[in-house]
Design goal:
58 residues; mainly alpha; 4 helices; extended
């Protein structure tokens, strides 16, 4: 695939979650609208992986 050929490392994905759309339509942050949403859990996991990758580069 193009990703594999690019040499880039995939740190995670964020699944489709209707809570993201609903929060946006209400002008709210996802964490305020639905702190238990699956998308938010994946976003937090991605944040943690990014931090870990950055620290390993130092």
């Amino acid at each position: 695939s193009r990703l594999e050929n690019s040499g880039l490392k995939l740190l995670g994905t964020i699944p489709y979650d209707t809570s993201v759309i609903k929060a946006d339509m209400l002008g709210k942050a996802l964490i305020d609208y639905n702190p238990d949403s699956i998308a938010l859990r994946h976003i937090i996991d991605l944040k943690n992986r990014l931090i870990k990758e950055y620290i390993e580069l130092l």
